[in-house]
Write a structure and sequence with these properties.
With 331 residues, this protein is mainly α. It has 2 domains: 11-102 and 112-262, Orthogonal Bundle (Cytochrome p450); 264-309, no CATH class. Helix content is 59%, strand content 6%. Strand 5 and strand 6 form a beta hairpin. The two termini are 25 Å apart. Its cofactor is heme. One of its GO terms (molecular function) is oxidoreductase activity, acting on paired donors, with incorporation or reduction of molecular oxygen.
Length: 331
């Protein structure tokens, strides 16, 4: 039995404790006395090439964060916003077409799996953000095989994080053969996207490529071997963002619509808040109006609370010992 006494602190194994409280979360991730567990190193697919998730070394992690977070800065998001809005509008157009088509046939509308629709949209957005090109999931079924990859990648990562020994035996080749085949196809698809992006000027698009290029050049001070590093860096960083954004975005948006459809008063407040501020669809963009929507923000946060987009057992290590939630931890 993992724990004989239920509570916010659970003994997972020798020298391992699990904390389940908001207070512990704040203490752990605001402390400089904490570093990532070595288990994250098992998630590195290419030796020496890390992303912000699997980088254990503090200096590497700090560098990766600075590169990726440049893409999420306000100026970068504003520059990328037209591309994102275009992808969102395509989702809306597809929903409208489906409703008109089904309404003309009978009085019932064809049910739509919004989780799938949101996945298509989020993948296309992240494709544009990472590689400057869309996967075209909303207009073609050619790349729909991507959806079979993410669950396998997350499952593999969860297993390796708990038991790094499985990395040596290649667990995905034994238990996830279909996923392994799909991953190889994914690598081929992404490699083509990277190759096409490398043919363009680094500032041709507001995407992750330009930030990684600047970071690599500032580190090296020369263009030697920068293309090789660019491919590896872009591959691992964009791959992480794809895996991190697809299910999380679709789950949150689906949950939001689900709860709004079942709480008419909340739905009325949100729609009134939005429609009274914008007279047309083209007016909707980031800015002070959207950030002032208290009801919309409250509904999004409540949807996140009631249906968390992703649960995980993150592994961290206390370097010099610590006190967490009234529990004294030795080094």
């Amino acid at each position: 039995m993992i724990n004989m006494t239920p509570g916010s602190v659970i003994r997972l194994g020798p020298n391992e404790l699990g904390f389940n409280s908001a207070e512990a979360l704040k203490e752990i991730y605001s402390s400089k006395n904490v570093q990532k567990s070595k288990g994250y190193a098992a998630l590195v697919t290419t030796p020496g090439v890390h992303n912000v998730h699997n980088a254990v070394d503090f200096s590497i992690h700090k560098h990766k964060r600075s590169v990726v977070f440049k893409g999420f800065s306000i100026p970068s998001l504003l520059a990328f916003e037209p591309t994102m809005i275009s992808t969102i509008n395509l989702l809306i157009q597809n929903l409208v077409k489906t409703s008109i088509k089904s309404e003309s046939q009978n009085n019932w509308l064809t049910p739509i799996n919004m989780g799938t629709s949101f996945k298509h949209m989020s993948f296309d957005v992240m494709g544009e953000f990472g590689f400057g090109q869309s996967f075209n999931l909303q207009t073609s079924s050619e790349n729909h095989f991507l959806f079979g990859i993410i669950p396998g990648i997350l499952t593999r990562g969860g297993i390796l994080l708990q038991c790094q020994a499985f990395q040596k035996i290649g667990i995905e080749r034994i238990f996830y053969r279909k996923v392994h085949t799909a991953v190889r196809k994914y690598h081929s698809t992404v490699s083509k996207l990277v190759a096409d992006r490398l043919k363009e000027d680094k500032n041709a698009k507001s995407d992750l490529f330009s930030f990684i290029f600047d970071a690599q050049y500032s580190n090296n001070g020369k263009h030697e071997d920068i293309k090789t590093m660019m491919i590896s860096e872009l591959f691992t960083d964009s791959g992480f963002l794809l895996a991190a954004s697809s299910d999380t975005s679709s789950t949150t948006l689906s949950a939001l619509l689900f709860y709004l459809s079942r709480y008419p008063k909340c739905y009325e407040k949100v729609t009134t808040e939005i429609r009274s501020s914008f007279s047309s669809l083209s007016e909707i963009h980031s800015g002070p109006k959207i950030t002032s929507f208290k009801h919309l923000r409250a509904c999004i946060e409540e949807a996140l609370r009631m249906s968390p987009s992703l649960g995980s057992d993150s592994r961290e290590k206390f370097v010099l010992g610590a006190s967490q939630s009234m529990v004294i931890l030795s080094p």
